[in-house]
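User: Structure please.
Assistant: Input sequence and predicted structure:
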Amino acid sequence: MELRQLEYFIQICKSGSFTKAKEELGVTQPTLSQQIRVLEDEYDIQLFDRVSRGVEVTEAGKILLNKGNAIMNLLEEARNEIYGRNNISRETISIGCCPAELEYLAPYFMRFCEKYPNILLKIINAEDAENKVLEQRVDIGITANPISDASVISTHLYRQEMALLIHSEHPFADKSSIPFRSLKQMNSIMFPGQYKSLIEMNCFSCGFALKSMIETSSTSIMIHWVRHGHRAALIPISLLESLRDDSLRIVKLEGQVPCWDISLVYLNSVTMSSTARIFIQEINSYVQAALQ
């Protein structure tokens, strides 16, 4: 028996139906039903009786529920004894973050560390944050990719929008905004991976292909190259709002503006550490306060 199967079983007992349980767990009903069948096959018993308004726990199921709750309580007690409910100084939270968002989120990470100086944040570059969460190589992921696995919970953080960063001597330097189609003849610097794919899709819908001369996941390198007169860069506007440099200009895009949503992702599991839960709450609060 896997711990996740026990969690699913306990939640069905609490909810009284598979439909309500799947909503609470954030998984599909086929996944939930399949895991319960595996559990029943393992013990060669029936855990639920189907009734008109949902399910009722069988006598055998009540035994498993009683023991299962005891197991979950013991795990929680062990966790509290190891880390201490009021002492999380030895906890490390591993964060898999898409590279292009690291510089924008860095101030929020710093604020968290200042508030919780005894918690270590381990930040890892991760284009595939969802997979790293699924493989339990990181506790939490921050990604622009849509989530494909029902066992991963996704919480929206903010929306990013591209703008054009150019040198003050660029032909567009006197403009506050330009149509997206104006990029047609431009050689640009851009982020690789999904960000490039997003821009290319926008270009395709407008009937042209954007020329990418340099690709890098570092915003600071992009800014450095533009500052020294090397073409233009497509950069999330949130990273440019605090930029103060007379040699640079920010030009907004009109029409087909490349934008994407950034989400916080983590496994749907009641065994998540209290420290990870604190981080999720804090980072959400920081970002939402900044957007107001």
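The chain has nine helices and twelve strands.
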